Amino acid sequence: MKYLAIDNALAVSGWAIFEDKKLVEWGKFTTKATDPIEERLGQIIDNLDILYFKYKFDMVLFEDCQAQSNRNLQTYHKLYWLYFDQVKNLYILNYNYL
Hints:
The chain is an alpha+beta fold. It is built from 2 helices and 4 strands.
């Protein structure tokens, strides 16, 4: 089974692909704070699509949300819903399950 692990954020999102608990590849995608929010979200969606079509992962794992403020927590929740809308067979898990 292939997993996409995400450390999601609006500015920099880290990602890693695992297959049967073995690390296959990793990286990050970034958006510019000066770009409009719609453009930044579009970039995140495009990057998720690229990762999905390249790796055909079966499941998505999110890093456990560690918010520094209520504003950050709201942003993370909105990003989770963006990922929900873009990825099939989605499960929110902590990296510890790997």
